[in-house]
Predict the 3D structure of the following.
Amino acid sequence: MIYLDNAATTWPKPEETIAAIEDCIRHAGANPGRGGHKMSLSAGRIVYETREAVAKLFKVDDPVRIVFTGNATESLNLALKGLLKPGDHVITSSMEHNSMARPLYVLQKRGVEVTQLQCSPTGTLEPGAVANAIKKNTVAVAILHASNVTGTILPIEEIGRITRANGVFLIVDAAQTAGLLDIDVNRINVDMLAFTGHKSLYGPQGTGGLFIRDGVLPEPLCQGGTGSKSESLEQPEDMPDRFESGTPNTPGLAGLGAGIRFIMSRGLDSIRKHEQVLVARFLEGLKQMKEIQIYGPADPSIQVPVVSVNVRGQDSSEIAFILDKAFDIACRSGLHCAPAAHRTIGTLDRGTVRFSFSIFNTPTEVDYVLDALERTVAELP
Amino acid sequence: MIYLDNAATTWPKPEETIAAIEDCIRHAGANPGRGGHKMSLSAGRIVYETREAVAKLFKVDDPVRIVFTGNATESLNLALKGLLKPGDHVITSSMEHNSMARPLYVLQKRGVEVTQLQCSPTGTLEPGAVANAIKKNTVAVAILHASNVTGTILPIEEIGRITRANGVFLIVDAAQTAGLLDIDVNRINVDMLAFTGHKSLYGPQGTGGLFIRDGVLPEPLCQGGTGSKSESLEQPEDMPDRFESGTPNTPGLAGLGAGIRFIMSRGLDSIRKHEQVLVARFLEGLKQMKEIQIYGPADPSIQVPVVSVNVRGQDSSEIAFILDKAFDIACRSGLHCAPAAHRTIGTLDRGTVRFSFSIFNTPTEVDYVLDALERTVAELP
């Protein structure tokens, strides 16, 4: 199988990730931060080491500013619902995934004012539009770092300068960029950064988190046992306990830590270059096929390794079906949980066929997919 | 190491659990319910099979009534915050874990009226007290099935008859009983049942869920991508999508499914008998030591395999420390995230030393621990 659905979940995982999960279950399978016995301490150490690895990756000084969740969706719900109150104004974009758009819609119904900035047909946004949209009651800009539909990288650094200058919080959905682009939370001026473990961090599904800058104090989504200040009914104020109730996904976090160490040992630069080579080769081939329409920037220097296309006149699901059945190529069709993005690029009616690459894909695979697409197009009625 | 902290997390896990997790990551490592390609369908099948296994275990007719979460804490937050509105009245007990008590405390501050029924010094509750506490605005009884401190099993069936007769919802925290006691959601008349995967269901940490009876419609904790009705900003109403946003912990759920198949193949009756034998042997030995105070019913027929003790005059953490360092016994000291329970049994000042057993513990281990306790007591100043 040629797996090109890495924007959903990267596959395969590094052997290190799988080994760390198994090792954790076998040798550190107790509750972290709860008991005082040796295996509980080992479990606690694993969680802490992963927290440190995430902090190092995002250039966060204090690892306790990293809160673990089950996925980026939970992180965004925590950031948005924890921060925004009725009467507050929030600015977002027209490229958002439902993980951002649906909680914002719920908040809007509760009295939060939401401005959705229109992105260009390739999915990007003029930073000036953000500055123009800021009002007296604007509390936050909540925006994705790169699109899961077109791969378009948004101008987060410029937006961060604007939010910082205006005393507005910046909430970034880094689901598609964490582990792929060099994210420095201070350079970007991001106040809360949501990430997931199972994409370009090469951890397992069931892991994710949120960076919360010191001084930003959202309400927790959940309260419960934290293994700390147990005598009090008040949720502890300390980080990360305030936001981490109940037993965490320790083996998952072991795998996430191994995934991050894997990408850091390869080097983000070298991974980015590898994936840019694949995307460039893929785009070059696609551009030769006149039946293929490419969405997004079609420029590997300003997009993550996600390429959306359509075959003229064809439904996206039909093409993905043929590629799976006849060529054993796993890609994804439809709306990718991001209807706003499809409205922006003009594909709300039929979605797109999306190909997304990881460090494990090869130029040979790209050529095979191009050939498969050519043959599919040729055989269409 | 003798591991007796199974009420926190069972360890070791069955080989089947570990194998299922690895197999899922290697061979079904895509997103369930999102793509149409073969590996995405395999992932979807795993999640569905685990949902079926949970449904079968709890005698739930329709598997979609089972919603997956990260742990019992998240399940209880969802059940309580999703259901209770300001002005509603909820009845709870004085034995609750902070996973129940802390979200109820937050709700109380938002205007929900909370009645905490006082349990007996062994941790049980007279069902009549529930009937007496029901008022016009009572919406739910929210109560644990068995105590994580004393092991005491609460009279849930009797309480369920009372709630059903009075048109009040019953929310049960089954963290300590799922997989251990025979839970039939219809016999118990439970409306929402919270469970965790990493205790007596022998799955990994990072898994859990909530049974939600048809007709009970809490608000979701999170909204986001569900892979369904993606064109709408409204969270889908369908079960389980309404409550499951973002990529789930598929490998964790693979492990949970294997864990449930493991206990079902052994038979809940036979597991219960095994653990009752261990608890009976342990209690018998403890009763010979005049320095030891036992909490809870001290009767294996009415408790789960959790036994809390103190050595007269000693801090619980000191005893647990000696058992770990000198005898390589992993138990747990302190409040076990359940201060109300300790207030009820009179140990809020120093906690208890808690021993909890799993299917993998043996009578020889029980004897070793009894011997270690005897020697520890003998050497105390």
Observations:
- Chain B has two domains: 2-10+267-378, 15-266.
- Chain B has a mean pLDDT of 97.
- Chain B is about 40% helix and 15% strand.
- Chain B touches chain A through 84 residues (CB under 8 Å).
